[in-house]
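Raw record, unedited: DctP family TRAP transporter solute receptor
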Amino acid sequence: MTLNIHPRIPAQAAALTKALAAVLMAASVLLTGCALGGGQESPSLPRSQAVILRLAETMPENHPSARAMAYFAEMVNRETQGRVTVKIYYNGSLGTPTEIIEQVKFGGIAMARVNVLELSEEVESIRKYFVPSNFAGGDAQTEWIHSNEETLRDECQMDRITPLVWYYPDFRCFYGTDSTFLDKKDLEGKKIESSESALMAEIFRDMGIELAGSVNTNTYKSLISGNIDGAESSFSEFICNNYDQYIHFVTKNDAWCLPDVMIINTENLTSLSKEDREAVEKCAQSTYQYQKQSMEQFHQVWVETLTEEPEVSFSEGAFR
C-alpha cells in the first residue's frame, strides 16, 4: 500500500518535502552538537558486529509517523557510527498492531511505532490516562504526556516495553457513503467500524455508538452493503487506505485525539552500551518536532484537497 498523493497537488507535495528536509537538516545540526560519550569518537564496528534493531511500522513510507521512523533510523546509524542499525519494515509486514506489540514485549521484534489504542490493550494500566474527556484537545494531551512521561514509562516497562517518544496526535474522522455525521445525534444508534480496542469501546459506549468491528480492507464493502452505517479512524489512515477515492462523506472528529508512540523492548534497550543507549533515546526524542511538522503539513495538504474535491463532502464535526 502506498500513500496516494493526487497529481493535482504537486506543488503542495513538493512544499511538504522541502519543509521537512529543512527540519531534518536543522535537527541534524542540533543533534550533532550534542556530545555523546564526552565528545570522543568511537571507532565504527565491523558490520558483522553491529546491532540490528528491527522496527515494525504498520503504515506506508509516506505516512507522517512512518517518515519520522526513517529519520530516526538515519540518525541512529550516524550517531552510533554504524554500531546500531535500525531496519524498518513498513505496511504491517511484521503483523497486525496487536501482534507487533506482543512480539516487542517478548523480544521477537525490537521496536515498533504503534498507536495508544493498541498499546493500551497490552499495557492496560495506561488506558485510564487517554480517556478523551481528560483533555481539551491535542495540544493539552501532548502537554500532559510530556509532563508525565516518567509515569507512562514506568507502567509500560512493567510489561517489558519502553516508550521512547510520544508523538503529536493525528486527528480522527468519521466517514460513510450515504450521509454526513456532524454531531452526536447523527451517531446515536449507528453501527460504526473503528479500532476493536477496550479504549475505543469505552469511547463509543459513552457516545451511544455501536462498535461494529475493526476498520479493514472490507470496510467499503460493508458500507455499500449496509452492514455498517459508517467508520472511524485516524485521518492519515483514511488517506493512506485511499478511501477518499470512493467514500464521499468525511467529517473531522473534534472529540478525541489518540497519539502514536515509538516503543522498544526493554531488554533490547538495556543490552546496548551506555553510549549507544543514550544515542538511541536522544535520536528518538529528536524525531518529535519532525513528526509534528510532517503531520501538520499532511493535514494542510489533504484537508485542502478534500475541501476542493467536488465529489467529496468534508465537514468539521461537533462531537464534544
